[in-house]
UniProtKB/TrEMBL annotation:
The keyword Transmembrane helix applies. GO terms for molecular function: transmembrane transporter activity. Pfam families: BPD_transp_2. The lineage of its organism: Bacteria, Bacillati, Bacillota, Bacilli, Bacillales. It is a multi-pass membrane protein. It is found in: Cell membrane. It comes from the Bacteria. Residues 315-339 are annotated as: Disordered. This is Branched-chain amino acid transport system / permease component. Its main location: membrane. The chain crosses the membrane at residues 12-29, 41-74, 86-104, 151-172, 193-222, 228-250, 257-276, 288-306. It comes from Halalkalibacter krulwichiae.
Length: 339
């Protein structure tokens, strides 16, 4: 069980980068960007084909980010310059990327098992330093009979994800970042200040899909393959991570919200892992589990708010009733004294 949860935390941290990208488009720009399903695979495809062709895994990952950025920019151009509905622009780009991804890979699946990736290099370096022996006793305290292969991915990816989170927070506080946030809140108002909202939307979607492609490139290297179908339903997973994180950790500030999104991505993976261990559920039920998790994350906070509001009204009614009763008793006392 502990090893399964450990694996879900590993993948959850990597998927958190994709969730951050979805947060930028869905919450900051208020743009329902379905390009994510395609740009996630684009990142995986570009990274995989680059590694197979002899590029360094780091350079291959950088290529993936650029490809994802360009895909997002095209969606933005379709919407802003082509005047296409945001939802339709995302769907059109997602469909186009399916064929483009097949062209990039040359076939539906590219294995990376015999290639050197970021994670194979990282794991080898980590194990040569003997750092795992320092962390493994933590799991033995919890009674784990099996120990993880390495702690390298969890530790390093957590640092990388937090670093990107802090960079995102910083960017959203810059002049351009504030303009992108204002564009998402009220496009007409920010346009009245002579800001070029078209450019801001294109840039925002480019950054969003760059993060999604980065996550796709890392997942391909983590899983050891890139598949043309690996992006199906990715937008739902991203939205689930955002909604769960916001519901559990709050959205008072940008920094808190981006941290909540990362937490939501990890919790989503853990919940899916635990759900799949139930005897009556199978791997094919994953989409159903995702839908149930999203519904629960959407409905539960509203039910809790309604319950709190009901209690508040009841308490206020009781206080008013007691006050009226007290006033009545005082008036009764005065009448008796007068008579």
């Amino acid at each position: 069980m502990l090893i399964s949860i450990f694996g879900s935390i590993e993948s959850g941290i990597i998927y958190a980068l994709m969730a951050l990208g979805v947060y930028l488009s869905f919450r900051i720009l208020d743009f329902p960007d379905l390009t994510v399903d395609g740009s996630f695979v684009t990142g995986a495809a570009v990274a995989a084909i680059s590694i197979i062709n002899g590029f360094s895994p780091l350079v291959a990952t950088l290529f993936a980010v650029i490809a994802g950025f360009l895909a997002g920019c095209v969606t933005g151009i379709l919407h802003t310059k082509g005047k296409i509905n945001p939802l339709l622009a995302g769907i059109l780009m997602m469909i186009a990327l399916y064929s483009i991804n097949l062209r990039i890979m040359g076939r539906p699946n590219l294995p990376l098992l015999n290639e050197e990736t970021l994670f194979t290099k990282l794991t080898a370096t980590w194990q040569s330093l003997g750092i795992d022996s320092l962390f493994n006793p933590i799991l033995t305290i919890f009674g784990a009979s099996q120990l993880p292969r390495t702690w390298a991915i969890v530790c390093v990816m957590l640092i990388v994800t937090l670093l990107i989170k802090f960079l995102t927070d910083y960017f959203l506080k810059t002049e351009i970042g504030l303009a992108i946030r204002a564009t998402g809140d009220n496009k007409r108002m920010i346009r009245s200040f002579a800001a070029n909202t078209d450019w801001l939307i294109i840039l925002g979607l480019g950054i969003s899909n760059g993060l999604v492609a980065l996550s796709g490139a890392l997942i391909a290297q983590y899983g050891g393959f890139a598949d043309v179908g690996m992006g199906i339903g990715m937008i739902i997973i991203g939205l689930a991570s955002v909604i769960i994180g916001e519901a559990l950790f709050g959205t008072k500030t940008i920094a808190r919200t981006t941290l909540a999104v990362i937490g939501g991505a990890i919790i989503y993976r853990i919940v899916v892992t635990l759900a799949l261990r139930a005897d009556f559920l199978e791997t094919g039920d994953m989409k159903l589990i995702t839908a149930v998790i999203v519904i629960a994350a959407l409905v539960t906070p509203k039910l809790l708010d309604a319950q709190r509001e009901k209690k508040r009204r009841l308490r206020k009614r009781q206080e008013l009733s007691e006050k009226l009763k007290l006033d009545h008793q005082q008036k009764g006392g005065k009448s008796s004294a007068t008579s």
